[in-house]
Design brief:
Largest sheet: none
Number of strands: 0
Helix content: 55-70%
Shape: elongated
Structural class: mainly alpha
Distance between the termini: 66 Å
Number of helices: 3
Radius of gyration: 25 Å
Oligomer: single chain
Length: 70
Amino acid sequence: MKKALKHSLVWILMLSVIAGCSSGGSGAAGEDEDKPQDVELKVFMSFPRFKDQFDAYFDKFKLRCWPRKI
């Protein structure tokens, strides 16, 4: 009897988790997908001798993430 009760509770819990995760409702994460955002990245470096390498890396990052012109 205890075994059947435990199995029933486990199945109910699993089904409720699956039902909650697979609901097709619109959430906050999907609302801003169509709207591009302008962001600013501030990087503070204590070693200015690598500034050229960081600038080149950031330029490559911009091209990879935003192939369209910003």
